[in-house]
Amino acid sequence: MRLLAEGLSARRGEDLIFKDISFDLAGGEALVVTGPNGSGKSTLLRVLAGLLGADSGRVRLKGGPAGFDHPRELSHYLGHRNAMKRELTVEENLIFWQRFLGDSPGGSGDGLVEAATAVGLADIIHLPFGYLSAGQQRRMAMAKLLVAYRPIWLLDEPTAALDVSADRLFAGLVARHLERGGIVIAATHQALGFTGVKSLEMTGFFH
Ligand SMILES: Nc1ncnc2c1ncn2[C@@H]1O[C@H](COP(=O)(O)OP(=O)(O)OP(=O)(O)O)[C@@H](O)[C@H]1O
């Protein structure tokens, strides 16, 4: 499967945020998107996730499962917010996401305990999400990537609030996903700790 962006441009309100963004990623490849605040990294991820329309250009998949020609339904989107309910336990949140997202064709997600263990938090699965520290909350958001299979991961500042060991753990999860033929696109200000990735530097426009 390949993910292609061809001459993409996007606007927020009246403002053109970026233009002429093109890339081509095969299964097993990652793209790290860098650039200053406001340069359009989150906007690009939202376009790829199908949450925002492109102003011009297109995003498409080649060679993916039949009937899927856009990455939106085959993607996990991890935004700045963790998208968990504070009042529900970690386990309840993960069960919700597992059922809501379901598996994409071609794979199956991990069990809850397995996913919580993979992010190093199996012991606190019974706690309300709101009780967790910021770093623990971000780890649980990563577990969401594991409980339902999606071949494409779109990650916005995935390692914000993470300590060094969680950074390494996250790099391991990404490496495993790539080894299994997944695609990862991550916007970040920090080095993510994995090698052999493509990069895209957003420059933004001055209005
Ligand atoms: N809903 C909106 N309406 C109008 N402008 C918006 C909207 N959302 C974002 N913008 C503008 O779009 C531009 C790009 O924002 P975006 O969040 O994509 O940048 P970013 O590179 O991800 O920034 P950061 O590194 O701070 O997360 C910014 O100038 C921002 O103010």
UniProtKB/TrEMBL annotation:
Keyword set, alphabetical order: ATP-binding, Cytochrome c-type biogenesis, Membrane, Nucleotide-binding, Translocase, Transport
Gene (UniProt): ccmA
Database matches in PANTHER family: ABC TRANSPORTER I FAMILY MEMBER 1
Pfam entry (one): ABC_tran
UniProt entry tagged with the keyword Nucleotide-binding: yes
UniProt-recorded name of the protein: Heme ABC exporter, ATP-binding protein CcmA
Top-level division of the source organism's lineage: Bacteria
GO molecular function: ATP binding; ATP hydrolysis activity; transmembrane transporter activity
InterPro entries assigned to the protein according to its UniProt record, in alphabetical order: AAA+_ATPase (IPR003593), ABC_transporter-like_ATP-bd (IPR003439), ABC_transporter-like_CS (IPR017871), ABC_transptr_haem_export_CcmA (IPR005895), P-loop_NTPase (IPR027417)
Family, as annotated: Belongs to the ABC transporter superfamily.
Domain (ABC transporter): residue spans on this chain: 3-206
Gene Ontology terms describing biological process: cytochrome complex assembly
